Amino acid sequence: MSGRKVGRMSRKTGYLLIAVLAVAVLVSSCAGDREPGLRGGTLVVGEPSAYEGLNPMKATDAHARDIYNQIFLSLLDENDDFLTFRPRLAKSWKFSADRRELTFHLRDDVVWSDGVGFTAHDVLATFTAQKDTAMVWSGRHLKEHIDEVRVVDDYTVVYHFSHVYPYQVMDANDGPILPKHFLESRTPEEVRAAKVEEIPSNGPFRVREWIRGQSLTLVPYEGYYEEGKPYLDRVVFKIVPDQVNLITQLKSGEVDYMESIPPAEVDKLRKEDYGINIFSFPSRAYLYVGWNGKHPLFRDVNIRRAMTMAIDRNEIIENLYYGLAIECKSPFIPQMWAYNDDIKPVAYDPEEAKRLLTEAGFTDSDGDGWLDRDGKRFEFEMMTNHGIQIRNDILVMVQEHLGRIGVKVELVILEWTVMLERHKASDFASILSGWRVGTKVDLAPIWSCEARKVGGYNRVDYCNVEVDRLNSTARGILNFDEARPLFYEAQRIIYDEQPYTFLLTPNERLALHERFEDARPDVISNYHNLHEWRVGPVKEKKGDDGP
Fold it and tell me: Distance (Å, rounded) from C-alpha 458 to C-alpha 61?
């Protein structure tokens, strides 16, 4: 249509257009009536516990990482095969002929939330901060084989490696990029102390409001480089410490999305008409009981093995998980190429457990039903976090199982952040917890002797130099077939020594209201493509007859 014809629009046509536009505005105000691809609507996520923090240089728990990855971008986006990547801040990347240099070509249309343009200098500044020992960044070990990062120009950066190994791209990519002008204007202590709201961001979302212990609200970052995304107007993470209450709010529609649904509720939510979709797939997490090797009771490998023999893992899986978990027998998960499926689980055998404890000097000398040695009862605390009912249920079952062989366990259930601080400080005798396994095949972060230091993840004081040697050798071998036997042996040694009682690997169990479309949670993250989630058209309810 030509400009002249538009200019001669009749008054009647003009009124009609205004009416149409008014209807369009009215429709757009209703999130459920959104046309596909348009922005609108609020997602309310129910969370059982608060976050310790969302500063990428300080936060260590996996769920915090899920959230801050919506706020800060990395060079690449990892695929769920744990081996390949998609462009993000980097639009392309390429190795040199000898594979010792990795060049990233960066986007030139990314802007920090304070208006400063993103460049290669931010990548260099982030790497420098990550390598700085004063920063105490938990992922520093991932950069140990990167000797240097060199800026070629504003949108080209080169990573120089000390040697060739399989996970060079992953190591270069690990950790979101932060702005140079933020990092270099503060001391490492000040960087770590900064609130997430104080750090310029470049991801699809930014923090609108964070009421600590109650809710976190994310809204779209208007300067995000993917035009039109994210589609949602708001994402609210609502803290509901009681899981029964959380399920009730999910069913009533007060909460739209929930992780870690109790297994007993999965079929109910599928069958009953709550308008909820269920996502269930093998997770990259496992649950365990950790035995602190610094505690006098658990320095002895035979005592740790006796604890495992006394805990009926299959009973826990059958009674609490309804087939949505498998027994765990390795610090790797089955999806990983180096997973040793030939390890035989320690058998449930309470009589053999008693025998091992008798050999260690524990008997019921006073006939009170509890084992003792040198006048001291075999008694200790086992802690876990409040808010996830199934962990509390497992804790009670473990207490009962160990009680059958005369071992007294006192249960300690703490708020998540309190438990996490005690865990990080190795201030416990035993702990029921879980790890979301990193996607890189490497035992060092949790199991190396070096990882026992402050800030490390080896919080049970486990150290075996042969495990370190096998792992160090294997992770440097490019050929997976050659590396696999070494990883197999390292896993076997760890499992034999039982620094953990490896309990189970659960399925993810996620519930999302059916009005949300294009959600694709996966083993990388339950929020992997959150910026593409959207509210679809309102669906008619079944059986609504009449006027």
Answer: 14
User: CB neighbours of 223 closer than 8 A, spacing ≥ 6?
Assistant: 111, 113, 115, 202
Domain that holds residue 209: 42-48+204-275+514-535
CB-based contact 157:148 (threshold 8 Å): no
Domain total of the chain: 3
What are the Cα distances from residue 105, in Å, to 95, 123, 224?
A: 12, 11, 19
The answer to whether residue 280 is domain-embedded is no
Q: What is the pLDDT of residue 29?
A: 33
Closest listed residue to residue 43, CA positions, set 387, 388, 416, 526: 526
For residue 407, the tally of other CB atoms under 10 A from its CB is 24
Task: Give SS3 for 243.
Answer: helix
* Residues 73-83: tens digit of each pLDDT: 999 999 999 99
Is there a single domain that holds both residue 146 and residue 295?
no
Q: What letter does residue 209 receive in the DSSP assignment? A: E
Whether residue 79 is found in the same domain as residue 162? yes
**What is the predicted pLDDT for the residue at 539?**
60
Cβ-contact 80, 86 below 8 angstroms: no
The answer to the question of residue 228 being in a domain is yes
DSSP codes, 498-516: -SEEEEEEEEEEEEEETTE
Of 146, 173, 196, the residue that ends a domain is: 196
What is the per-residue pLDDT for 273?
Answer: 86
Q: Which helix (H) or strand (E) holds 210?
A: strand 205-211
8 Å CB contact between 120 and 155? yes
- What is the tens place of the pLDDT at every residue in 457-480? 999 999 999 999 999 999 999 999
Query: What whole-number distance in Å separates Cα of residue 19 and Cα of residue 14?
Result: 9
Angular region, 389: left φ>0, alpha ψ -120 to 50, beta rest: alpha
Closest-CA residue to 397 (of 331, 317, 330, 323)? 317
Token pair recorded at residue 60: 């260590």
Angle between helical axes of 465-474 and 480-497 (0-180°, round to 10):
160
For residues 472, 477, 480, 483, the Cα torsion angle rounded to the nearest 10 degrees is -40
DSSP single-letter state for residue 317: I
Residue 317 maps to a domain: yes
**How confident is the prediction for the chain on average, in pLDDT?**
91
The verdict on 328 and 392 lying in the same domain is yes
Structure tokens at 269: 């939510």
Is 54 a domain residue? no
Same domain, 168 and 231: no
Long-range Cβ pairs for the range 348-354 (8 Å, 24+): 348/309, 348/310, 348/311, 348/312, 348/313, 348/314, 348/315, 349/309, 350/309, 350/310, 350/401, 350/404, 350/405, 352/306, 352/309, 353/305, 353/306, 353/307, 353/309, 353/310, 353/405, 354/306, 354/405, 354/406
- Examine the domain organization and report whether 248 and 339 are in the same domain: no
Q: Do 263 and 301 belong together in one domain?
A: no
Q: How far apart are CA 288 and CA 505, in angstroms?
A: 9
Choose among 301, 285, 281: nearest CA to 293.
301
CATH code for position 467: 3.10.105.10
Domain co-membership, 297 together with 251: no
Given 149, 179, 196, the domain boundary residue is 196
